[in-house]
Amino acid sequence: MQLKFCRCTASPLHRFTCKLPRVFHRLNDPVAHAGVAQIALVAASMLAAVLLLNRELFAFFFRHRGARFTAACVPLHLLYFLYSSLSYLGVWVGMKLKVVVPGKR
Description:
This protein is mainly alpha-helical. The chain has helices at residues 14-17, 22-27, 30-53, 55-65, 67-96. The chain has a domain at 55-105. The protein contains five helices and no strands. The radius of gyration is 24 Å and the shape is flat. The N and C termini lie far apart (51 Å).
């Protein structure tokens, strides 16, 4: 398989001197990073919202067991949200595909 090199027009000599495959060149492209920055911003804001909404729980952990215990509980709490969301999604998809029938075991 032949690798396709980038066709960047940043400089006239660039297409002759660039030895990176096109995919690696796109990773260095500032326009390609704009999507990554937006995803990171959304992820950071969602994380901040989860921490803010659960601040009383984390304060309880801090009061009773200290900072190390609270720092260990935060990732576990996020893991709980992840697997509960995935299980809900799995049941929802099963209901839509008629694999899971409500009320039957």
